[in-house]
Amino acid sequence: MYDPPPERPSESDCCGNGCVECVFDVYDRECARWRRRRLGAGEGDRLRRDLLSATKHMPYRIVSARPLADDVHAYKFAATPAAVGRLPIAYTQHVNVRLADGLGRPYTPVALGDDDCSFDVLVKAYPGGRFTGRLLEMSADDVVSVRGPVGGVQYDGYDSIVMFAGGTGVAAFVGLIGSVLDDDKCETLLRLHYSCKTLDGVLMRKELAGYAAYWNCAVHLYLTREHDWSQCSESFWYNENITEGRITQDCMTKIIDKQQNLRTLWLICGNDEFNQYVFNSLVNYNIQRDNIQLLNNTTKDFKVS
């Protein structure tokens, strides 16, 4: 079993800006987790905990990069030197990918390699973006630094998980849905409400279609700028439900009403405007805030309007 204790950050790792979660807070939390793991660890554990740290960046090479849409690419990163095992990342957790010049961004892995210590993320290329501009210039076998994982969602005790995704925010949910469906003993109901501009812009559509074939999973697409509705007739074969336009208040009312008799966890991941809109809608319908979680948002303080 590979399970060294977390490495203490250096004083220079703290930016001194009073972050809500300082790197030293992360270190203290990881030390507590490490102690709990040591008490409950068993033989045959293939998790390579030595290859990731929540407090230190470690080297990973680019295995591949392929376009999924005009501005979205799927990247695979693997530990370097090559290693065997599985990375200790739980779906909905995120890792920080940092380039040589110090620029870094958080990403939620959508897939994990079963035996090659790798993970996949979706990268949206923003016009003029410094980080994505540099990353897109890099090639296979170039090396980046990775720190994490941090965050994550606990869904034990819930009857249902309702997810709201905007654009690349769906990356936060793909792995979660797959892991729940892989658990034969889990009967949690899964509902994904995914807002995209067009049908061609739906990311990981085949994976989502496979998930929607399960009895306890439904995928709802909201297309805000689709002009060619003839191709949407194909949605029958993908087990999709398609709505023209955004997720309106009427839509929110119907979604919430269907969950009235279920203990539901509400998850949100998109840009700040999307997150704020869905968050407001849920709270205004008297959904308890303890049952609402936002993933990878950059809004510091959500206020109900």
Question: In words, what does this structure look like?
Answer:
By secondary structure, the chain is α/β, with parallel strands linked by helices. Strands 4-3-7-1-2-6-5 form a seven-stranded antiparallel beta sheet, with helices on one face. The model has no long low-confidence stretch (mean pLDDT 86).
Distance between the termini: 50 Å
Mean pLDDT metric: 86
The fraction of residues in strands falls at 25-35%
- Please report the total strand number as a whole number: 13
Evaluate the radius of gyration: 20 Å
Helices, by number, come to: 6
Q: Based on CA inertia axes, which overall geometry fits?
A: globular
Question: Helix-strand pattern, N to C?
Answer: HEEEEEEHEEHEHEEHEHE
Major pleated sheet: 7 strands, antiparallel
Strand arrangement across the biggest beta sheet? 4-3-7-1-2-6-5
Provide the low-confidence segments as ranges.
Answer: none
Q: Helix coverage percent of residues?
A: 10-25%
- Overall SS class: alpha/beta
Please write out the topology.
Layout lengths: L22 H18 L17 E12 L2 E8 L13 E6 L5 E4 L3 E2 L5 E7 L5 H8 L5 E9 L8 E7 L4 H12 L6 E8 L8 H8 L4 E7 L16 E5 L4 H9 L6 E6 L2 H13 L7 E3 L11
Parallel strand pairs: 8-9, 8-12, 9-10, 10-11, 12-13
Antiparallel strand pairs: 1-2, 1-7, 2-6, 3-4, 3-7, 5-6
Tags for this entry?
alpha/beta, 305 residues, globular, seven-stranded antiparallel beta sheet, 6 helices
In short:
The protein is built from six helices and 13 strands. It is of the alpha/beta class and 305 residues long.
